[in-house]
């Protein structure tokens, strides 16, 4: 399952090209303080999807076709749905959906089919600042209750010598447990098929943030509060001989026993839930660090292991104190070599940089917005806090989570000479 991130596919993962802002939404009498529970109860269908087509079907009304990537109510991933909506100005609750872009939409079922308006989309716009919390709460509300003796509890209660072993949880699931001591403190890493039918990871004590897995494809970061599909999907090459594990960048016991344990959990999850061993779930997002090699600069890359899609990355020009930031959220009408304004928002701070459009005439990568920041130490310090970062290129933006990257920032900075 090794990925060659040199041939990454770009996901069209940019901000909704809507004309509205929060104040406009209020002008058409939208609810000011929406909640996840309220959105789910008031709509027959709620989902995130990629726009495949949008056409005007009558004056001031369009029909937009979505390919669902995550369903929250009334629809499952991979389904295709058509939603009617007014396409006029935001003051009349009109909304436009740009082809190829990703949106979260709440829709109601009527005699004419599914419909939505600006009032059911504005709260999910990245610049409004409500989307991530609303999506997280909807996922929590939809999640099945954890069984007694859940994985986190099992990790906290695990016993035995250092190393890896597999045992059975009270609910019958297999769980892999790795036990190690770092700086005199005992840590436990646990992996099992999750109650949501996706592999899950737990690390105890809970102050630990990320499990790092070093392979020939770079160093992969698995935050403890995210699914661990790639970890249980055959990521580890038995013949590689270079497997190394770390918790928050400090070495953790690995070896053949760890490889065996990961494989057993992957196969148990396949048999138990239908999850496909050897294939990552396309919902998972990961950070991967690739050190400087063969003349290429060090890279911290954020994307989807399942598809090879790149969303953003950080690299540098070693010895020049320059941080290079690339984003796949291309502004509309972008032209090769064009200069565009670029901003990075992190932990309440905003950083401006010069940026240019880099387009490719063929291949899997459509292009990047490439920005350069000199003496980036202040920005890197903000990134180290592990929050959300927004990359803004003119009329497009991309939000990414720094969790996972934080544990590898020190390696990245050393490789770059910052």
The percent of residues in helical segments reads 10-25%
Uncertain spans: 1-26
Topology as a string of helices (H) and strands (E)? EHHEEEEEHHEEEEEEEEHEEEEEEEHEEH
Provide the domain count: 3
Q: Looking at this structure, what is the CATH superfamily of the largest domain?
A: Invasion associated locus B (IalB) protein
- Please tell me how large the radius of gyration is: 22 Å
Oligomer: single chain
The number of helical runs is 7
Averaged pLDDT: 83
Main sheet attributes: strand count, strand direction, barrel closure: 14 strands, mixed
CATH class of the largest domain: Mainly Beta
CATH topology of the largest domain: Immunoglobulin-like
Number of beta-strand segments? 23
Structural class: alpha+beta
CATH architecture of the largest domain: Sandwich
Shape: globular
Percentage of residues in DSSP E strands: 35-45%
Q: Distance N terminus to C terminus?
A: 33 Å
């Amino acid at each position: 399952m090794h990925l060659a991130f040199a041939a990454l596919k770009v996901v069209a993962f940019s901000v909704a090209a809507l004309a509205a802002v929060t104040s406009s939404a209020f002008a058409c009498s939208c609810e000011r303080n929406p909640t996840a529970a309220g959105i789910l109860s008031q709509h027959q269908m709620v989902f995130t999807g990629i726009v495949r087509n949008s056409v005007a079907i009558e004056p001031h009304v369009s029909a937009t076709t979505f390919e669902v990537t995550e369903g929250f109510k009334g629809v499952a991933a991979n389904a295709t749905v058509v939603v009617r909506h007014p396409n006029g100005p935001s003051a009349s609750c009109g909304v436009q959906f740009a082809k190829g872009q990703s949106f979260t939409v709440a829709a109601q079922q009527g005699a004419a089919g599914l419909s939505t308006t600006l009032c059911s989309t504005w709260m999910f716009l990245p610049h409004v600042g409500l989307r991530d919390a609303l999506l997280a709460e909807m996922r929590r509300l939809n999640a099945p209750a954890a069984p007694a003796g859940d994985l986190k509890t099992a990790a906290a209660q695990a016993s035995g010598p250092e190393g890896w072993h597999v045992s059975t949880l009270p609910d019958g699931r297999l769980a892999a447990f790795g036990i190690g001591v770092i700086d005199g403190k005992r840590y436990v890493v646990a992996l099992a098929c999750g109650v949501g039918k996706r592999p899950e990871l737990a690390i105890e004590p809970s102050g630990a943030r990320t499990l790092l897995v070093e392979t020939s494809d770079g160093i992969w970061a698995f935050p403890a509060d995210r699914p661990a599909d790639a970890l249980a999907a055959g990521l580890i090459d038995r013949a590689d001989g270079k497997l190394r594990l770390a918790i928050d960048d400090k070495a953790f016991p690995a070896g053949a026993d760890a490889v065996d344990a990961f494989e057993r959990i992957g196969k148990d999850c396949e048999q138990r839930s239908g999850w496909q061993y050897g294939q990552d779930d396309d919902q998972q997002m990961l950070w991967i660090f690739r050190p400087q090699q063969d003349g290429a600069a060090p890279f911290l890359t954020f994307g989807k292991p399942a598809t090879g899609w790149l969303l953003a990355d950080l690299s540098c020009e070693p010895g020049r104190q320059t941080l290079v930031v690339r984003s796949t959220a291309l502004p509309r009408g972008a032209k090769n070599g064009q200069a565009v304004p670029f901003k990075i928002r992190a932990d309440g701070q905003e950083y401006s940089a010069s940026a240019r459009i880099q387009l490719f005439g063929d291949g899997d990568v459509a292009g990047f917005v490439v920005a350069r920041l000199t003496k980036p130490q202040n920005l890197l310090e903000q990134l180290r806090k592990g929050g959300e970062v927004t990359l803004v290129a003119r009329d497009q933006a991309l939000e990414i989570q720094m969790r996972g990257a934080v544990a590898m920032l020190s390696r990245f900075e050393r490789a770059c000479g910052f």
